[in-house]
Automatic annotation (TrEMBL):
Residues in EH domain copies: 1-83, 106-193
Keywords carried by this UniProt record: Acetylation, Calcium, Cell membrane, Coated pit, Endocytosis, Membrane, Metal-binding, Phosphoprotein, Repeat
Main localization, broad class: membrane
SUPFAM superfamilies referenced in this protein's UniProt entry, alphabetically: EF-hand
EF-hand domain boundaries: 27-62, 138-173
Species the sequence originates in: Nicator chloris
Name of the protein: EP15R factor
Bilayer topology: Peripheral membrane protein
Biological processes per GO annotation: endocytosis; endosomal transport
Cellular location(s): Cell membrane; Membrane, Coated pit
An annotated GO cellular component: clathrin coat of coated pit
GO molecular function: cadherin binding; calcium ion binding
Keyword Magnesium found: no
Protein's UniProt keywords contain Phosphoprotein: yes
Length: 193
């Protein structure tokens, strides 16, 4: 490990190199800060070999669900895991964007309404969706925006997922939330990403 962060054998690892390396452990900044404080107790701003060893041990402890403190250093834990930056797959953590803002129970309700409108080939035409939107008594400009946002593939029809987006936006608007000018990533159905 030391070679990766101290290629010139100076026997010390600067704060920025160490921070970059420790970040690859996937631990939160708060925990990494604690680890740093314990590994560099005198606040030298760099880690010597011993300090770096302490940091690695504490990363391993944290990754295995142990507290970050000096007594954890005596625990037997598997070696710390670091993501290799050259493999991009590991580095993109699943962000909040991957989940869909339409909740499961909402979706079930919207699917029911969708089916009740007798979709053709899994699609509802604008004419069929319009009365449902109008029913909300929202201003026409808002409803127009809801339609534009939810007809994601711009085919003039809504499929089940697009309809759920439309209904979600309508319910939000009824709660006095503003309808966004473009669809946030969390509202784009997984099938459309």
């Amino acid at each position: 490990f030391l070679l990766q962060v101290d290629p010139t054998y100076t026997g010390r690892v600067g704060a920025s190199e160490a921070a970059l390396f420790l970040k690859k452990s996937g631990l939160s900044d708060i925990i990494l800060g604690k680890i740093w404080d314990l590994a560099d107790p005198d606040g030298k701003g760099y880690l010597d070999k011993q300090g770096f060893y302490v940091a690695l041990r504490l990363v391993a402890c944290a990754q295995n669900g142990h507290d970050v403190n000096l007594s954890s250093l005596n625990l037997t834990v598997p070696p710390p895991k670091f993501r290799d930056t050259s493999s991009p797959l590991l580095i993109t953590p699943p962000s909040a964007e991957t989940h869909w803002a339409v909740r499961v129970e909402e979706k079930a309700k919207f699917d029911g309404i969708f089916e009740s409108l007798l979709p053709v080939n899994g699609l509802l035409s604008g004419d069929k969706v319009k009365p449902v939107l109008m029913n909300s008594k929202l201003p026409l400009d808002i409803l127009g925006r809801v339609w534009d946002l939810s007809d994601i593939d711009k085919d003039g029809h809504l499929d089940k997922d697009e309809f759920a987006v439309a209904m979600h936006l309508v319910y939000r608007a009824l709660e006095k939330e503003s309808v966004p000018s473009q669809l946030p990533p969390s509202l784009i159905p997984p099938s459309k990403r």
